[in-house]
Each structure stands twice: as C-alpha cells, then as structure tokens.
Specification:
Helices cover 73% and strands 0% of the residues. With 438 residues, the protein is mostly helical. It comes from Streptomyces macrosporus.
Length: 438
C-alpha cells in the first residue's frame, strides 16, 4: 500500500513508541493557523450578505419570486458546480494565486451587488460571487487537508482533529456573519455588501503577505487525464455519493424543517433558534466529539456512524407525526432532528475531508477536493426536486420523513471498503498502546 500524496509506503501496524501522557501537543504550523483563520473570516464576510439577498431582491428590487429563486440557484451553481474547476486550477498553479484571485473576484462581486439595480447586473454579480468561492474554497480546503496529513505523519495526532478545527472555524463564521449583516442592514443592503467586500480586502492583504509562494509538501499536478482517471475511480465516486446523501439530508434544514416548524407552531419564527442551536453545537462540541469518537474511528466507520445519526433524526420526526403534536411540544421532534443531524455532521464532514487525501492521485488533491463538492452538489440538486415533490404529496405525514431517513441509512452501503494509509497509521498508534501477548 502506498500513500497517494507522497508515494511513500505506508507503515504496517506494529509497535510504536508510547506518547507520554500529559505531554502537550505541538502547535499547528503557521500555514495551518492562517488557513483556519481564513475559513473563519471567509464565512463572516459571506454570511454577512447572502442570508439577506432574497429579501433584498424581492423587496427593494421588486423581483418576482421565480426570478429570486433563479438568482439564488445560479449563485449555488456558480459556486458548488464549479468547485472542481477551482480544485484543478489549484493543482496546476498552486494555492496562493487561486486564493488571491478568489478574494479579488469576491471583492468586485460584493461591490457590484451592492450597487446593482437591474436584473442582469444582479445575476452577473451573484455569478461572480459564486465563482470566487469556487476558486477560493477548494484551494483552502485541499491545502488544509494536505497540511493535516503532514501534521499527522509528524506524530502530532489525527488529521481529523485539524479538519474538525477547520469546521469549527467555518461554523463560527457562519454564526457571526448574519449577526454582523443584521446590524449593517439597519443602514441598508449596500452597506452590508461593502462591509463584506471589506472583509475580503483584509483577507486578500493578509494572504498576499503571509501565504507562502509554495506550500511545503506540495506536489504540482501535471499532465492531462486527471478528470478521466477520477471519474473511473469507483471508490472516490462512492464516497461522493455517500457524502451527497448527507448534504441532501442537511438541505432539509431549509426544505422539510420549515414546513414541520410551521405545522407545529403556525410560524417559522422558531427556525432562527433551531439554526442557532445547530451552529452553537458545532462550535462547542465539534472538537470534543472528534477527540472522543472521530480520532478513534477509521473514516469509513466515522461516516457510517454519522449517517446513521442523521437517519435517526428523520426517524424521530416520523415517529412523532402520527400524534400531530403542536406548540412547544411539537417543536421537540424538530429540535431532536436538528441535534442528531448536527451530531452526524460532526462525524461526517471531518471524516470525508480526511479520507479524500487517501483516495486522490498524487498532485490531484485539489481536483478531488473540488469534485467532492461538485458531484455531491449535483446529487443535492437532483434530490431536492424529488424531496419537494415528496413533501407535497398526499401521503401519510410520517412517510416522507421515513423516506428521508432511508436515504442516509442506505448510503452507508455505498461507503468504499478497504484499508487506507490513514487506517494503517491509526492501527500503528494503537499498536503502541497494546502490551504484547505472552
């Protein structure tokens, strides 16, 4: 077995030196700290504007509902659908130019959106904003994964812990961003857009100064045929499908959950509290969950456990629907759904990101990281239409939720099998803690 990043043979499980208890872990490298803080700042700037875009389009600009939906869909396509492009460019040119280009485009896009009054200008601005993220995010995510593997190889701990910290930073930004945006909206939407652009000016300046011109341990991708090889990689595509089923389930926070909350309370106002509950859970519990569970499980087992937790969240709502609870009691199943979905997310996301470096070809980590988002995003796009139709049918109220529970549960069977280099390193560490049998 060889490691797909360095092509150095993976160590076989065997005795390893014990790590002294109480010994502090080495700090993260300056590059890792920069990238993790980047994710925090990126989400603050992003979520200070985008949650309020639909209201601005339908209110201040007076666009029709179908046109608002089209604009939002184009932004999602310009981002998720083109992640694979950003990843491929990262492999070819390196992290620094792709990140700086993404920041520059995001600054222009937010400034344009703040001043756009015509439909074509709004569409152009949101496409530019989406493409900027399609450049920026795969570059940062693939480099974080690469450096997390390097950190793990140095004996500092599991890569999933680094990736969990990256997730926490992103979720913290997603929590703070809307609060900042709501404050700025007391002035106007243009002020929120310009503030978001200002955040990316700071990110651009910081990265131009601090981001190394060539990251350590990085092999440039060269030659052609990387996409064809990736599309023939059944193990990677299976991971994409399983991850896509999780994203489809997560998307129900915006599709199925609002209907359930409105049924129970007659209003969607409690949604804000449930979204805040999800964000706070990730910020406060992601690292403990990773330390106690994620580090001890191989990526396949961590993802399987997470998918089953997500399925259990849908099953809780399905079990409660026949009783048709309302009021505060009616919110209990929805809150359980949010908690179980978020716990599943805490296991799935770091495990999937930790798994990709073991499946990627040498020098193609950016391509594979971007493809994970693009392929799973296409699954969500197709599945969301089917989910919307399912919720609108006249079936018994528990049936749609049971069908939604079956999707992540069944996707456990899609997870690729077989040992990976990270499994070998995990077994190596465990072997050092075992006493030899007599």
């Amino acid at each position: 077995m060889t490691d797909p990043i360095s092509r150095v043979p993976a160590r076989r499980p065997g005795p390893a030196p014990k790590r002294r208890t109480g010994r502090p872990r080495p700090p993260l490298s300056p590059l890792l700290r920069l990238l993790i803080l980047t994710q925090l700042a990126f989400n603050i700037g992003f979520y200070a504007v985008l949650p309020f875009l639909a209201g601005h389009l339908g209110g201040a600009l007076g666009l029709a509902g179908w046109l608002v939906g089209l604009v939002l869909g184009l932004r999602t396509f310009g981002q998720q659908g083109l992640f694979v492009v950003g990843g491929a460019l990262t492999d070819r040119y390196g992290v620094r130019p792709v990140v700086l280009a993404g920041c520059a485009l995001r600054i222009v896009g937010f400034g344009w959106l703040g001043h756009a009054q015509r439909t074509w200008a709004v569409i152009g601005a949101v496409l530019l904003i989406g493409f900027a993220a399609a450049l920026f995010s795969p570059a940062v995510e693939s480099e974080v994964a690469r450096q997390a593997v390097r950190w793990e190889r140095a004996g500092n701990g599991s890569r999933t812990r680094v990736l969990a910290l990256f997730t926490v930073a992103g979720q913290a930004g997603a929590f703070v961003g809307p609060l900042l945006g709501a404050l700025l909206l007391t002035v106007d939407f243009r002020t929120a857009c310009l503030a978001g652009a200002g955040v990316f000016v700071l990110i651009l300046a910081g990265h131009a100064w601090l981001l190394p011109r060539r990251a350590p341990d990085r092999a440039r991708g060269g030659g052609r045929g990387g996409v064809r090889t990736m599309l023939r990689d059944r193990r990677f595509l299976a991971l994409c499908c399983a991850y896509g089923s999780y994203l489809l389930a997560y998307n129900q926070l915006y599709l199925a959950l609002p209907d359930e909350v409105e049924r129970a309370t007659g209003s969607q106002a409690p949604l804000a509290w449930l979204f805040a509950l999800s964000s706070l859970l990730v910020v406060s519990a992601q690292l403990p969950v990773t330390r106690r569970v994620g580090d001890r499980l191989a990526p396949r087992r961590a993802m399987a456990a997470g998918l089953l937790l997500v399925a259990a969240g849908f099953a809780v709502v399905a079990a409660a629907r026949p009783a048709d609870p309302t009021g505060t009691a009616g919110l209990v199943p929805a809150a359980c759904f949010v908690v179980l979905l978020t716990l599943g997310q805490m296991l799935i996301v770091p495990a999937a990101r930790a798994w990709v470096p073991d499946l990627a070809e040498d020098g193609r980590l950016g391509l594979y990281t971007g493809a994970l988002s693009s392929v799973s995003g296409l699954i969500v796009l197709a599945g969301s239409a089917a989910t919307g139709s399912l919720l609108d049918t006249g079936l018994p109220p528990a049936v749609p939720w049971l069908v939604l529970a079956a999707v992540p549960a069944a996707s456990v069977l899609l997870l690729p099998r077989g040992a990976t280099p990270s499994d070998a390193r995990r077994a190596d560490r465990r072997g050092g803690l075992r006493r030899p049998r007599p």
